[in-house]
Design goal:
Helices cover 68% and strands 0% of the residues. It is mainly α. Helix 2 crosses helix 6 (85-99), helix 3 packs across helix 4 and helix 4 crosses helix 5 (64-78). The model has no long low-confidence stretch (mean pLDDT 93).
């Protein structure tokens, strides 16, 4: 998995149209921006906890099962499993897009 500075460089090198397409596709099944924000928070926390459910739960004062359920929901809605390295890499890139101001469009 590419995290931190290298992932930021990778995301920065993607064209604006491609960024928008990836973002729209990833969050296509989300109903609200609040749902997206909550998922972004879960993904960022899971990454910062080095994929440890226990640490992710401790960092957010949640039960491990709650973190597990939220990761499952992200998988259901996006089609990308945050427990798998290749999928988590894409989800990490999308969280960087979100934090940089990218939002869903109808196009």
């Amino acid at each position: 998995i590419v995290f931190g500075y290298n992932m930021e460089l990778l995301v920065a090198s993607i064209s604006a149209d491609c960024k928008q397409s990836i973002y729209n596709h990833t969050f296509r099944n989300y109903k609200t921006d609040k749902q997206i924000e909550e998922s972004v928070d879960v993904i960022e926390n899971y990454i910062s906890a080095n994929r440890s459910l226990k640490r992710a739960a401790e960092n957010t004062f949640m039960h491990e099962n709650t973190v597990q359920q939220r990761l499952t929901k992200i998988h259901e809605l996006t089609g990308y499993n945050p427990r798998e390295a290749k999928d988590l890499s894409l989800l990490h890139a999308v969280t960087l897009l979100h934090r940089s101001g990218t939002r869903r469009t109808d196009a």
